[in-house]
Fold this sequence. Notes:
Radius of gyration: 23 Å
Distance between the termini: 63 Å
Low-confidence stretches: 274-282
Shape: globular
Mean pLDDT: 86
Oligomer: single chain
Number of helices: 9
Strand order of the largest sheet: 1-6-5-4-2-3
Amino acid sequence: ISLPDKTTSYLHWAKTTGEKRVSEDEVSSWLPFADAGIQPYPVDHAEASNHERTARLASIRLSENDTRSLQQMSQKLNVRFHEMLIASSACALTQWSGNEWAIFDLEGHGREIQESGIDISRTVGWFTTIFPVYLHIDRQLNTKDVVKLVSEQLAPFIEHSAGFQFARFPRFCDELSRQLEKVHRPSISFNYLGQFDGMLKDQRFRIASESTGFERHPENLRSYEIDLSARLVSGQLSIDIAYSSARYLESTVAQLAELIREALADLSQLDVSSPEEMTMKAIGVSADDVENVLDEMGLE
């Protein structure tokens, strides 16, 4: 058996990436939110416990057609699919809470963070990145502009996520670590798990629909009030909303789920025609009609 060359060790990756990425510029997107006095999301029973044993799940599932429409719309708007999902969730959260800010921890697999001379393609380790994002949602804007705005606001947080991850640890920079401790930490998390289609090439197997039960000890405290996780399975988008039944009424979470569903529907049905195309539609003229006229006139 001939094995490939050893890739970068987890320890070397952490040390090298941390030393290169930690700087004030890398965390500048987060520093304005230190002691910002941001209004927290509402909780029905704030005095109740948030233990794992109280965790419940509400789910949203789109049809294959609706999922396909959403994917096509992301291409037309030139934004990534997960940005569409984040924009939908952000719009829903601001409506649900009455806040103008959508704030949550964004989780990623972390292996997209690359440094020169670092190869972690075969390295075993937990590279997951978790970092807060702060999205200001202007309700006066139309849905298309909100998606573009969310995409623009997300960019610096995602680009500098590695810097934030390492700057939290005093060993890399004690001063930045102290500043980041004051940054408002979200009570909601969002994780796009990606596309599961094609993972099981052997048709004898499929992803089980049954619950796996508790993944953590029932007496552990949950890290967030609400966990949003999205995935694509068999061409269908599903979004799970995990919450504590002790702290939230089922009707409260159902309202949030419905707002997310409505936001997704709004996005999938957007008219992204140009002003010229919209005028042509209004007067009943198609692009083919215009081409035929130009051909008759000898124009291109």
